[in-house]
Amino acid sequence: MAYLCSGQTALQFMGISTANFLRISLSPPRPFAGLGAYLRLHLNGGVSRVHLRFPGCDIGDYRNVLEGMELDPDLEARVSLSDHFGLLDEYPRLGVHLSTSRRAEYPEPRRYFGGERAISTSTHSPAELASLPVANFDYAFLGPVYPSISKPGYGPKGGADLLTGQIPHGEGHIAAVALGGIEPERLAAIRRAGFAGAAMLGGLWRDLSPEGQRRVIAQFTES
Questions:
Q1: Distance between CA 34 and CA 16 in Å, rounded?
Q2: Based on the structure, what is the number of domains in the chain?
Q3: CB-based burial label for 106 (10 Å; 0-12, 13-18, 19+)
Q4: Is residue 79 a contact partner of residue 94, using CB atoms and an 8 Å limit?
Q5: Is 47 helix (H, G, I), strand (E, B) or coil?
Q6: Contact, 218 vs 40, CB < 8 A?
């Protein structure tokens, strides 16, 4: 078994540097036939990680998507679960994402889940992000940054520019990943604001054709 070096994050252990802008694909809230193949396409197309989140779905739904992704060990390490952590026994390299409400269940997530997997969480303000123990998480979603695409009417109108200078970043801080209303053309502003990455949801799933998926992933990874 390999072990983390002192001071090394799980992402560094997997060869993913937060010095490179993270691009994370978020699953749609409900799985559909063929979703696993699309998410594998995202990984092979250059996204840093994929997060699986299906609110209200059972463990079988998650398992079906994971099976459809046909993950080798390297790809498996680039996928995170938001629920049904019992699947870690079947997929031991999966990452773990803890919602704001679930952080209290796992006050020492690395001790509980092991240090060799990516562990992330969600936050809603720079102050909340800055308050978290740096050793607990490799990165954290921060948002909504823009009005949500998947939840119309939810989120601020000011965008990333209003957060410039407020994002904790650099050594000694948890990497902040922008969430909410993310589109490829907004990545430049998100970088300027000090974010270490961006997570895309609604903008990914407008066109479910293979060609549409390849196109949006190319735009996301090349912007």
A1: 27
A2: 1
A3: middle
A4: yes
A5: coil
A6: no
CA nearest to 27, candidates 51, 48, 62, 57: 51
Q: Give the DSSP letter of residue 55.
A: T
Domain that holds residue 61: 10-222
How far is Cα 94 from Cα 141, in angstroms, rounded to an integer?
Answer: 18
Residue of 33, 39, 22 lying closest to 79 (CA atoms): 39
- Show the DSSP H helices in 45-124 as ranges: 59-69, 73-76, 109-113
In this predicted model, what pLDDT tens digit does every residue of 177-217 receive, in sequence order? 999 999 999 999 999 999 999 999 999 999 999 999 999 99
- Looking at the chain, the whole-number percentage of residues with pLDDT higher than 70 is 87
- Do the domain assignments include residue 3? no
Residue 87 belongs to domain with CATH number: 3.20.20.70
Residues 6+ apart with CB under 8 A from 154: 144, 147, 148, 180
Spatial separation of the C-alpha atoms in residues 10 and 75, rounded to whole Å: 14
Query: Angle, to 10 degrees, between the axis of helix 59-69 and the axis of helix 35-44?
Result: 50
Mapping DSSP onto H, E and C, the string for 193-209 reads CCCCEEEECHHHCCCCC
Report if residue 42 sits inside a domain. yes
